[in-house]
């Protein structure tokens, strides 16, 4: 390997001794079987060491780029290493859509699913909830398929790469739809409490962006399905002003990176993400964290964070508030909880950000906040364990799929210790 690979943000240099990019499943099986320390790598968009290993890092991006649409079942089977942006237009052309997308189309399907990546929407589960089946190479090099009928399935989907290397995923599809995206500027903060339902239900997907510098939400992004009807947005809504031009969520950044706004209708895949595939998403120079709390606690959780708003603002580029529907996937941060996700795009300075993270985690502790698996967090393992009903079941599942622990790394050892240590 020439030079150590890093993650997208550049804050993690992977410790791997070797990086593999097998061109066939057989080659992948041989790599996994022969290795005593191995981890799957997606597009490296996670901000922590979740994908790292000291041994063999394996990318599945070199496997054949399968996109098989099953019209009868309304499903697609895709190669795990594909980035969403590489196949979503094909789904639309075939008359289909995915129910949800993250803010960026640059991430791999397997990586997004493994960490429960999400978009927004009161009734929209995260991206992993679309998974109907997955095929994976387990620690012994065997190729296995899991479907919703398997008992292991709800534990395996948001699998953090701990059960094997996923090669293909089958995703549920819905009929294609069009979306119009509107931005509203300067929503008074108190509207979150007084008009929560109208605000968060204003579209198929709603995002609130704030920089914590004043009693306002800087921007409200509303993505409305054009087939649902409803009145066109008013110039003033909940005392916010309809934006007169395209916006970037991070103050001062060019909106050219962002998906089309100003109500221009377009296919779901060109409106649900905030950022376009051909541009750098977000600010590019950043770190991120995100915490999920029960939606019922939104107002109290925000009030708790407001107390440290000046500390947050000092190291922040922008915060985003989104909704995620409850699901049944064991390690999903929205497991059995209709959730709000409180997101922070930080400046690229780990040392300055970590103390603020600690303060946020203390403030959100009463609400049993679950951190995003692919972003920075410091919640102690013994605390996090209590926030997931199926934690011990997942540890046992991972141990069954990987008895020698070859798929483990420092982060998994810290957060998912051997079941015998849990007694
Ligand atoms: C600019 C930016 C914007 C983001 N926006 C959002 C957002 O809107 N919503 C959100 O929820 N998150 C968001 N994220 C976080 C991101 O979606 C997650 O970190 C996601 O895991 C990235 O996917 P990846 O392919 O880069 O995975 P990686 O970071 O490469 O890996 C993540 C995990 O997936 C596992 N994995 C990867 N490939 C496989 C495989 N083939 N088989 C088994 N396991 C595998 C890895 O082992 C690791 O544990 C954003 C990140 C960035 C950088």
The profile of the biggest β sheet is: 10 strands, antiparallel
Q: So what's the overall shape?
A: globular
Per DSSP, what share of the residues sits in E-state strands of 2 or more residues?
A: 15-25%
Mean pLDDT: 96
Q: Which structural class fits the helix and strand makeup?
A: alpha+beta
Rg value: 21 Å
- The low-confidence runs, each spanning 5 or more residues with pLDDT under 50, are none
Tell how many strands the DSSP assignment holds. 20
In whole angstroms, the N-to-C terminal distance is 41 Å
Helix content: 10-25%
Account of the protein in words:
With 423 residues, the chain is of the alpha+beta class. It is built from 13 helices and 20 strands. The protein has helices spanning 25-34, 88-93, 109-114, 153-156, 191-194, 196-200, 298-306, 309-314, 350-364, 381-386, 391-401, 410-415, 419-422, and strands at 18-20, 38-41, 56-59, 67-70, 75-79, 96-97, 131-137, 143-147, 165-172, 174-175, 178-188, 205-210, 216-225, 236-237, 240-242, 266-267, 287-294, 316-324, 339-346, 370-371. The strands form four sheets. Strands 11, 12, 13, 14, 15, 16, 17, 18, 19 and 20 form a ten-stranded antiparallel sheet that branches. A five-stranded antiparallel sheet has the order 4-5-9-7-8. A hairpin with a 5-residue loop joins strand 7 (131-137) and strand 8. It is globular, with a radius of gyration of 21 Å. The mean pLDDT is 96. The structure holds flavin-adenine dinucleotide. The site of flavin-adenine dinucleotide has 33 residues, from strand 2, helix 3 and strand 9.
């Amino acid at each position: 390997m020439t030079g150590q690979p890093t993650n997208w943000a550049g804050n993690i240099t992977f410790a791997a001794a070797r990086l593999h990019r097998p061109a066939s499943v057989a080659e992948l099986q041989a790599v996994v079987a022969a290795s005593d320390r191995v981890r799957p790598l997606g597009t490296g968009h996670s901000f922590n060491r979740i994908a790292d290993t000291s041994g063999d890092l394996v990318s599945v991006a070199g496997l054949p780029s399968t996109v098989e649409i099953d019209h009868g079942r309304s499903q697609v089977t895709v190669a795990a290493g594909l980035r969403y942006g590489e196949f979503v237009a094909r789904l639309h052309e075939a008359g289909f859509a995915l129910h949800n997308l993250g803010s960026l189309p640059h991430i791999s399907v397997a990586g997004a699913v493994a960490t429960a990546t999400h978009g927004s929407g009161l009734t929209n589960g995260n991206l992993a909830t679309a998974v109907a089946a997955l095929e994976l190479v387990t620690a012994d090099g065997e190729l296995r398929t899991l479907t919703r009928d398997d008992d292991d399935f709800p534990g395996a989907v948001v699998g953090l790469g701990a059960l094997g290397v996923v090669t293909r995923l089958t995703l549920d599809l819905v009929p294609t739809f069009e979306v119009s995206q509107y931005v509203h500027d300067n929503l008074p903060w108190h509207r979150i409490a007084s008009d929560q339902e109208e605000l968060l239900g204003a579209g198929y997907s709603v995002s609130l962006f704030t920089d914590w510098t004043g009693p306002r939400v800087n921007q409200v992004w509303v993505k409305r399905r054009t087939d649902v009807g409803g009145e066109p947005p008013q110039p003033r809504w909940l005392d916010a002003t309809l934006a007169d031009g395209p916006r970037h969520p991070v103050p001062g950044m060019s909106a050219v990176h962002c998906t089309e706004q100003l109500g221009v209708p377009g296919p779901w895949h060109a409106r649900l993400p905030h950022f376009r595939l051909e541009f750098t998403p977000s600010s590019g120079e950043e770190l991120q964290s995100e915490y999920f709390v029960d939606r019922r606690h939104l107002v109290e959780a925000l009030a708790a964070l407001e107390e440290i708003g000046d500390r947050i603002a000092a190291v922040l580029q922008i915060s985003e508030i989104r909704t995620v529907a409850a699901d049944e996937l064991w390690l999903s941060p929205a497991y059995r909880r209709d959730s709000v996700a409180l997101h922070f795009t930080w400046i690229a300075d780990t040392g300055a950000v970590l103390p603020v993270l600690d303060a946020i985690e203390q403030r959100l502790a009463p609400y049993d906040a679950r951190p995003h698996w692919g972003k920075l967090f410091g919640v102690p393992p013994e605390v996090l364990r209590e926030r997931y009903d199926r934690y011990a079941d997942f540890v046992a599942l991972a141990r069954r799929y990987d008895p020698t622990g070859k798929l483990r790394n420092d982060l998994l050892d810290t957060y998912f210790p051997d079941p015998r240590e849990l007694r």
